[in-house]
Amino acid sequence: MKNLLNPKLIFVINTLPIVVLFVFFAGEFTIFKSLLNDESLYLWTVFGSTLGILGLLNFGYALYLTISKQSVSLWYGLIALLLYIPFLYLYSYHIDKIFPLSIPQWMFPGNSIMVYVGTFLMPTLAYSLFILVYHFTSDAKEHSPLVNFVIALIVPITGYLFSQIVLPFWKPIDDNFELHALLILIIVCTLVFLFFITRAVYVLVTKRGSSWQKYQLIWKIPISILLPFIGLVVNNGCLFCKLESDKLGIFGDFSNYWFYIIAILNGVFICLPNLESKKYRVFLFIARSLTFVYTFYFFLVFLPFLPISVVAVIAFGAGFLMLTPLLLFVLHSKELFKDFIYLKSYFSKRKILTIFFLSCLVLPFLISISYLKDKRVINETLNYLYSPNYSQSYSIDKVALKQTLRTIKQQKDRNDNFIFGTQTPYLSTYFNWLVLDNLTISDSKINAIENVFFGTVSTQGRVDNSKDENVKITNIISKSTFDKKQNAWKSWIDLEITNYSDSNWFSEFATTIDLPEGSWISDYYLYVGNKKEMGILAEKKSALWVFSNIKNENKDPGILYYLNGNKVAVKVFPFAKNEVRKMGIEILHKEPFPFTIDSKTVQLGNNEIANDLVFKANDPVIYLSANQKKSLKQIKRKPYFHFLVDVSLNKKKFSNQFKDRINKLLKSNPMLAKSSQVSFVNTYVKTVSLQDDWKKTYMKQEFEGGFYLDRAIRTVLFKNYKAEKSTYPIFIVVTNNIQEAIFDKDFSEMKFTFPESDFFFNLNKNAELEPHSLVSNPMRQLKNNTTFRFDQKVFEYKVGNHTFYLPQNNEPSIVLKRDIFDIQSNEIKPKNWQSGLLLQGKWYSQILHPETSDKEWLNLIKYSFMSKIMTPVTSYLVVENEAQKKILKKKQQQVLASNKSLDLAEEVQQMSEPNLLILMVLLGITFWLKKERARL
Q: Are 311 and 921 in contact (CB under 8 A)?
């Protein structure tokens, strides 16, 4: 334990945590600084300066001792306790002013930010306590461990008697004096208790030649094996029940069987005798070093609880279990030190320390390897679902995926009746950082993954019912200007929205806009009170997260974002009773068109100006106006049946029925049966020609996973588009229940790949075709009177060696001449229609090649910011204050540095650190004191 007097430890125990704390709080303070009043700003200055001075004094003292080669003095331990304890006490007392209610909770990176100060300073307090124990336990004087245990035990007994006998007769001067006096008394008692309990263990492990050493297993086994094991069992609530992995832990989830295995191994290694054998002691030293990380981990987890240990011992019969990590840490450290002293006779100090550190890294290394495997399998899964290569075959490890999903759900699941719920202290934070980049996977995506890969029934997400039909547009004005330089229109649509609801509850205005091809939103404003706030163009996921959180506070956000295809969502919140609010949207468009929003229509631009574009040969994207399309050749492509057969979990029993349905349809439509294909669909898609003995292939399929119909349709559309053939598929779904099919969304963004018809069909048990829409709610069957044909004409457009087929309608079309292309930064100009066309082409490219989206997603966001044109990956958002703008920027940076398929959500929070319990207990003590006084 003498090594504790090495001054270099102060750099690690005090300087490093304080530096990290300052860096962390500096970043957060810049976000919500504008929300603090003068008193709060003053307290931030005082406590920040005080902590900075204390940190510098510690650093200077440690530096001086290191240079002069001196050891840490007894006075350091005393002074550190006398300085840091009052600091933490006063900090806790003023916590409600340092973090006032004016700061929204969602702006904090975790619900424990307020107690980070205590968490980071607790190592210094523990270090000071160890120094006092060492200095007051002289080797020259005989110390009895039993006496120290007895003194330590007297403290909680005295506390209990005080609460039962003295406190009822307590006559305070005033409420504040009573509270402060009792809290100070509790702190002093806790220090005395921890001092003597630590000293007792220290005396035990250092005594030589006494009966305590002769019969050391009597006290080593309880401390190193029994108490840790019982502590794990009690924590997981399984003292008298079967151990289950889904049990909620009081201090976190330690239900993994490895915690129990390592606990026993750790205890056995500590209890093994220290024989005089070189090889044996090397083995023992390595073994004890391997598991020392386990001991140190639990010491860190329970270190913040030490200040309330005496209260826990008084209040709970099993409260002493909280002290086990401290006792085990002292015992384990001493045994390692004995091994170190013995091995110094055979090896150099450097070699022994190298062995120690390498051994200590084994468990963290194995954990990291396990987490990296989780990261790989979850990234493969997300890529398959959201960034697939339609030309590639996939095979995901479902066993590993199931385990990874279980872990992710544990990180998300919280229980307010417990400190950590199903999270594992520190390891959960490490998992979230390494595997999920401190983001998460939303519940809807987890449901989708489980449905696709395991055939489970997905859970419906929460529906936002905040929209009020009484909130309506009461005035709409448009102003269009033709820009001759870019040969396009700029139009502003100014809206006045009124809430006619009689309710006193806040209402929301929510609607959608259908934009024609070649038109894009390039600006947005919303009046917040009497101030006109311009919209911020931000990454879509971050903007939606901020909008949702501001909305929960009944503040004043407004947002525009793409839903799917060219459909744009418009939301403004909140509207008070009879409130009138104003907003405006700017649109860049090539041709005049009637703009409709919430049943209100205005004309944008006019037909007096001809503005057809002439494109260059190397342009990757081409815009064809409705007039230009009329001059193209009209043709009829040959349709063919493409059957999508359900081979998901539990569908084998329907195989004969499905074959009969297909045969009946083929016989009744011989012309469409030619060149037909069959895709067997579950988690994956396997396609064969109808002539390739499809029935034999059908019976060889593995009936597993979910019916991932979305992937099957997108894959076929992609391959048919790329083939540029004069044929097109008619999708025939063959399943017993199409409501079990898995769709990510509709297929409107792929509309350019199916110009003939928007229909696909479900083949029912009577071999009849039930029409469904590809562009709107694919699950819903269309009305029986829906007319559909298979002889539609399309426009044929040839460019070089490529042929494109465009829908025969009176609307413009965008042609992606090269489905993969690069954009140069100098091609993008602010609010420029041609730049918007390039961005639209880039989005089409990602639709066809999602496998490129990890890279191109960032480029598309970058070019969207440069052009000020909203794209499907960006959003226009209006917020009301500087703090909201800064948190938006911070979240956006976090999202852009992570996997694009990960999510930001309200439930995304870092784990709550242990010091939260300290404040909870202190608060509980305050209420308890007031209750006791009320009884008098």
A: yes
* Number of other CB atoms surrounding residue 403 within 10 Å: 15
Ranges of H-type helices in 417-469: 427-436, 443-454
Which amino acid is it at 629?
K
For residue 717, which of 746, 737, 695 has the smallest C-alpha distance? Answer: 746
CA distance 162 to 251: 28
Is the pLDDT higher at 829 or at 2? 829
With beta carbons less than 8 A apart as the criterion, state whether 803 and 796 touch.
yes
Instruction: Give the list of residues 6+ apart from residue 660 with CB closer than 8 angstroms, or none.
Output: 767
Angstrom distance (rounded) from CA 597 to CA 270: 74
CB 66 within 8 A of CB 8: yes
Average pLDDT, integer, range 692-719: 94
- Pick from 484, 560, 496: which is nearest to 522 by CA? 560
The token pair at 391 is 């030309």
Q: Can you give the pLDDT at residue 905?
A: 64
Query: Is the CB of residue 7 less than 8 Å from the CB of residue 65?
Result: yes
Q: Please tell me what DSSP assigns to residue 330.
A: H
Q: Which amino acid is at 585?
A: I
Cβ atoms of 481 and 606 within 8 Å: the answer is no
The answer to whether the beta carbons of residues 605 and 593 sit under 8 Å apart is yes
State how far the Cα of 909 lies from the Cα of 111, in Å rounded to an integer.
7
What kind of architecture, by CATH, is found in domain 471-617? Sandwich (2.60)
CA distance 549 to 906: 7
Q: What is the 3-state secondary structure (H, E, C) of 879-935?
A: CCCHHHHHHHHHHHHHHHCCCCCCECCCCCCECCCCHHHHHHHHHHHHHHHHHHHHH
Q: Cβ(238)–Cβ(247) under 8 Å?
A: yes
- In this predicted structure, what is the pLDDT of residue 416? 43
Q: Which two tokens stand for residue 887?
A: 């948190």
The answer to whether residue 447 scores a pLDDT higher than 70 is yes
Give 411-435 pLDDT, tens digit per residue.
776 544 445 556 788 888 889 889 9
The pLDDT score that the predictor gives to residue 923 is: 45
pLDDT on residue 617: 63
What is the pLDDT at residue 147?
Answer: 82
Range list of H helices, 207-272:
211-214, 217-221, 227-235, 257-271
Which residues, 6 or more positions from 73, have their beta carbon under 8 angstroms from its beta carbon?
none
Euclidean distance between CA atoms 671 and 726, whole angstroms: 15
* pLDDT tens readout for residues 654-668: 999 999 999 999 998
- Asked if 155 and 314 count as a contact pair (C-beta separation under 8 A), the reply is no
CA distance 215 to 861: 70
Backbone angles phi, psi at 275, to 5 degrees: -75, 155
Q: Domain boundaries in the chain?
A: 1-136, 471-617, 637-792
The pairing of strands 677-681 and 638-646 is: parallel
- On the CB side of 822, CA atoms within 13 Å amount to 4
Rounded-to-integer distance, Cα 646 and Cα 33, Å? 57
Calculate the average pLDDT of the chain: 85
Q: What is the pLDDT of residues 881-893, one digit of tens each?
A: 888 899 999 899 9
- Look up residue 834 and give its amino acid: Q
Per-residue pLDDT reduced to its tens digit, 814-847: 999 999 999 999 999 999 999 999 999 999 999 9
Question: 143: which DSSP letter?
Answer: -
- Residue 871 and residue 845 in contact, taking contact as beta carbons nearer than 8 Å: no
Q: 6-20, 207-221, 236-250, 636-650: which has the highest mean pLDDT?
A: 636-650
CA-to-CA distance for 508 and 466, rounded, in angstroms? 6
H or E stretch covering 482: strand 471-483
Q: Which CATH number fits domain 637-792: 3.30.2010, 2.30.29, 3.40.50, 2.30.170?
A: 3.40.50
Please confirm whether the linkage preceding 172 is cis (ω < 30° from 0): no
> What is the pLDDT averaged over residues 380-405?
93
More confident site: 461 or 710: 710
CA distance 138 to 447: 62
Give me the helix-helix angle, 853-867 and 833-848, nearest 10°: 170
